[in-house]
């Protein structure tokens, strides 16, 4: 089972949808400035299995094909995520959920076997508020399989696509707060327990949805956590980076400065502590970001969380990102 060699260049990626591929400007940005693409939502279970016994990978295929045609790596996102279980499985019995979840994993991982840089095999497994000693979130997967569902997912993914880096992806590990510190401790215990059992977890994804108003940075506790994860032999990936400006002043220049500072302080500090396999921003440009609906500004002004603005122009955040990654502002990794 191959994992990304630590000598491989750090890949700069972006989440995209086929909507972006049909937009000439954003398709150009994706091909010109990024090394990797990840389907923002069109490879998720609820999207590729819209009805029982129906499978629709047209959009996911288009994104994987676009990546191949433009020399981009492609991440798979996400095999098992409580946030994308098809609605038609609601109320199904445990045996049905087990059968459908395993069939979905085998089908979609098999469909792209050998073509993906990495998979988010399990997404967001932890929720300490659920009160379990192992920190696992209540989910259809935990209910159907028990706490062994993570090991099962990673073993099935490794068997189906041995060439992909197999990643456990999580949110909320990045913050400088007691809750995040507790979540980091639970994540380390989970990783140590699974690795000791020979479960093929090869990478940890830090989603990295940040808030500029918190003045985020890679604080010492996060740096120490990153070092501990790499000491376990895992690759780290920044998988869904964006910086909300919803709680920033209305003034656009001030907001852009705060967002850029967050990109710089988070990424430069993180790269002091580890060597991420990839840094992925959660959108090609401000023109299409999930934060516009999930974290809108109270004043209704368009949000500006990403390195490129709505017109595809580089923002201060792009310069900050490029500087933190030690890249020229135009070049892709390994591309002049
Ligand atoms: C979000 C997408 O950006 C939205 O377009 C979709 O409607 C919901 O999911 N953590 C994750 C991502 O792992 O898959 C989520 O993406 C954002 C939170």
Structure description:
The longest helix has 22 residues, at 252-273. Helix 8 (178-196) packs parallel to helix 9 (220-231). This protein has twelve helices and nine strands. The protein has an eight-stranded parallel barrel with strand order 1-2-3-4-5-6-8-9, surrounded by five helices. The radius of gyration is 19 Å and the shape is globular. Helix 9 (220-231) links the parallel strand 7 and strand 8. The protein has 336 residues and is α/β, with parallel strands linked by helices. It is 40% helix and 15% strand. The chain has helices spanning 18-21, 24-33, 45-48, 58-69, 94-111, 140-145, 149-160, 178-196, 220-231, 252-273, 291-294, 316-325; strands at 11-16, 36-39, 73-81, 118-123, 165-170, 203-206, 209-211, 235-244, 278-281. Bound molecules: (3S,4R)-3-hydroxy-2-oxopiperidin-4-yl beta-D-xylopyranoside (XIL). (3S,4R)-3-hydroxy-2-oxopiperidin-4-yl beta-D-xylopyranoside binds next to loops.
Question: Could you outline the blueprint of secondary structure elements for this entry?
Answer:
Layout: E1 11-16, H1 18-21, H2 24-33, E2 36-39, H3 45-48, H4 58-69, E3 73-81, H5 94-111, E4 118-123, H6 140-145, H7 149-160, E5 165-170, H8 178-196, E6 203-206, E7 209-211, H9 220-231, E8 235-244, H10 252-273, E9 278-281, H11 291-294, H12 316-325
Parallel strand pairs: 1-2, 1-9, 2-3, 3-4, 4-5, 5-6, 6-8, 7-8, 8-9
Helix pairs in contact: 5-7, 8-9, 9-10, 10-12
This protein binds (3S,4R)-3-hydroxy-2-oxopiperidin-4-yl beta-D-xylopyranoside.
């Amino acid at each position: 089972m191959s994992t990304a060699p630590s000598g491989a260049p750090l890949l700069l990626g972006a989440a995209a949808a086929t909507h972006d591929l049909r937009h000439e400007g954003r398709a150009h940005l994706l091909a010109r400035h990024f090394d990797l693409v990840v389907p923002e939502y069109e490879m998720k279970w609820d999207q590729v299995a819209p009805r029982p016994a129906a499978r629709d990978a047209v959009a996911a295929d288009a994104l994987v094909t676009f990546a191949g045609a433009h020399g981009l790596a492609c991440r798979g996102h996400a095999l098992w995520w409580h946030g994308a279980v098809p609605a038609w499985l609601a109320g199904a019995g445990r045996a049905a959920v087990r059968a459908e979840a395993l069939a979905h994993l085998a089908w979609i991982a098999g469909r792209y076997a050998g073509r993906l840089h990495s998979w988010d095999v399990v997404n967001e497994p932890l929720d300490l508020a659920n009160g379990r000693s192992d920190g696992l979130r209540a989910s259809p997967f935990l209910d159907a399989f028990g706490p062994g569902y993570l090991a099962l997912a990673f073993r099935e993914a490794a068997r189906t696509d041995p060439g992909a880096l197999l990643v456990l992806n999580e949110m909320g590990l990045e913050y400088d707060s007691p809750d995040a510190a507790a979540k980091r401790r639970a994540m380390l215990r989970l990783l140590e327990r699974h690795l000791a059992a020979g479960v093929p977890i090869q990478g940890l994804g830090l989603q990295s949805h940040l808030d500029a108003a918190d003045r985020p940075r890679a604080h010492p506790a996060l740096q120490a956590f990153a070092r501990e994860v790499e000491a376990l032999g895992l690759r780290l990936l920044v998988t869904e980076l964006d910086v909300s400006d919803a709680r920033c002043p209305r003034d656009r220049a001030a907001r852009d400065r705060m967002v850029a500072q967050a990109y710089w302080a988070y990424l430069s500090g993180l790269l002091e502590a580890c060597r991420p396999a990839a840094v992925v921003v959660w959108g090609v440009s401000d023109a299409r970001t999930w934060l516009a609906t999930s974290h809108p500004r109270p004043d209704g002004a368009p949000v500006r969380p990403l390195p490129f603005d709505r017109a595809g122009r580089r923002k201060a955040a792009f310069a900050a990102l490029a500087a933190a990654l030690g890249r020229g502002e135009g070049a892709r990794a390994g591309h002049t």
